[in-house]
Amino acid sequence: MYTSPSSPILCYSPRVTVIGAGRVGSTLAQRIAEKNLADVVLLDIVQGMPQGLALDLMEARGIELHNRKIIGTNDYADTTGSEIVVITAGFPRKPGMSRDDLLRTNAKIVVEAAKNAIAHSPNAIIIVVTNPLDVMTYLAWQATELPRDRIMGMAGVLDSARFETFIAMELGVLPRDVKAMVLGSHGDLMVPLPRFATVNGIPVTELLETDTIERLVERTRNGGAEIVELMQTGGAFFAPASATCVMVESILLNQSRLLPVATYLQGEYGLEDVVIGVPCRLGCGGIESVLELSLSDEERAALQASARSVRQNIDRAQEILMVAK
User: Which residue in 161, 136, 166 sits closest to 151, CA to CA?
Assistant: First the structure.
């Protein structure tokens, strides 16, 4: 005969909110639920869309063998108590557009989303995915006044994965055997680091000619634009969702993984008051530490140029927001 325990057993399930139910947001919700990481709240301003997507994902639970709850909503009140909030909301790039062209349209969206999210989940960690990513992360940090360890941007994981993919395709090896690191802004001035790239521990510089490496570096810098040009009607979403999910997983499971993350710098790499991608350890508290790599003069100069570009766009975005008020 079953006997109930004398004291209740509290079953806790973490909650992740995804703001923006477009292709990146909805795919991320799917990744999180099907990896059994957390319950998911999918929020969007479009009436019915997040609810429909959530119901569709819920109907797949028995097939995918998980029991995570997925809620679709237009109300920030439903996001209350989230451990992580991911902001994907905003307009995507169209052919011929750069990430920086999105400044005017996306700055207000991200600021409002960050403020609303943190009002309902004051202890949450925020991950920004909306482009131009480094600038949007800075604006969200400024708007919420969160400590830098609790707000970050997803870029380096995606850019590094693209670099790894192109190296693997060039050499005909498994992508999982390739490890690479990309720093800097999520744009044309990103800084892939070939001398830190390896295939099962063997430096890529020992396996590929300099000209070939430079070609792969350029393809990595233009990785997002290449997909936009091919698709014509939108941008990448499978790989961005997977890259974001890696960050979510490292935080929720306290894995303390070393990942390239867009973070607010306070003197690291000689940079101040700017958000840019650098290696960070991600655990349950968010960014546990920032790792300063020993860069060559050329690499450091490239990172500083990338940071200057981000800083200029931050200033432009702040002017746009001031005019909008």
Answer: 136
Low-confidence ranges of the chain (pLDDT < 50): 1-10
Helix, coil or strand: residue 258: strand
Strand partners, 16: 40, 84
Per-residue CA distances from 94 to 121, 208, 228, 236 (Å)? 33, 34, 7, 11
Beta bridge partners, 153, equal 128, 262
Say how far apart CA 145 and CA 115 lie, in whole Å: 10
Give the tens place of pLDDT for each residue, 222-242: 999 999 999 988 899 999 999
Structure tokens at 101: 């062209």
pTM tops 0.85: yes
Query: Who's near 136: CB < 8 A, 6+ residues apart?
Result: 87, 90, 106, 107, 110, 128, 130, 153
Give the pairing of strands 178-179 and 198-199: antiparallel
- For the stretch 239-287, pLDDT in tens is 999 999 999 999 999 999 999 999 999 999 999 999 999 999 999 999 9
Q: Is 120 a catalytic residue?
A: no
Tell me, what amino acid is at 126? I
pLDDT digits (tens, 9 = 90+) for 84-107: 999 999 987 677 766 567 788 899
CB 195 within 8 A of CB 206: no
Q: Please name the helix (run of DSSP H) or strand (run of DSSP E) that holds residue 214, with its range, or none.
A: helix 210-221
Q: Which of 31, 93, 186, 221 is catalytic?
A: 186
